[in-house]
Design goal:
The protein is of the alpha+beta class and 150 residues long. It is built from four helices and six strands; from the N terminus they run H-H-H-E-E-H-E-E-E-E. It has a six-stranded mixed β-sheet. A hairpin with a 2-residue loop joins strand 4 and strand 5.
């Protein structure tokens, strides 16, 4: 009986990982995409961001027009994020000495993944896709921890 349970649990995990396509290597690569995204800004390394992001990546958040008080969707694209990584933290004053960067893989199914990145002042929800055997960031939806900052 005990061997049957062990065999059933073993088969469940083997079949689950084979069917969904997620391997330990996939998990490591997905996590690295999220880390490259944030660390490119910490370390002023635009090439690190370029390595992580698909050329057509879109980053979105809600923003408030200060004059009208109306909220709207604000978008940033890969090229602007590369420039941000190149300039944002040049003086090394935008992040704490040991910045927070907690990566939580929410879901992986075959060639798509959803990830949550908890950083110092904000939360990023990411969609990452595996194209041509490479995991790449395609969507980011973020907000400040304090939504009043928007």
């Amino acid at each position: 009986m005990k061997q049957s349970i062990i065999l059933a649990v073993f088969l469940f995990f083997v079949l689950t990982f084979n069917v969904l396509g997620q391997t330990q290597q996939d998990s490591l690569e997905i996590k690295q995409v999220a880390l490259d995204y944030i660390e490119s800004q910490h370390n002023v390394k635009p090439e690190q961001f370029e390595r992580a992001a698909h050329p057509r990546m879109v980053k979105r958040t809600f923003w408030t027009n200060k004059k009208t008080g109306k909220e709207y969707l604000r978008e940033t694209f890969t090229d602007a994020m590369v420039l941000l990584a190149e300039t944002y933290n040049q003086d090394k004053d935008k992040f704490p000495e040991n910045p927070k960067k907690e990566v939580i893989i929410l879901d992986v199914f075959e060639k798509v993944a959803s990830v949550k990145l908890i950083a110092d002042d904000w939360i990023d929800y990411m969609h990452i896709v595996k194209l041509n055997e490479k995991w790449q960031l395609v969507n980011v939806l973020w907000q400040f921890n304090d939504s009043e900052k928007h």
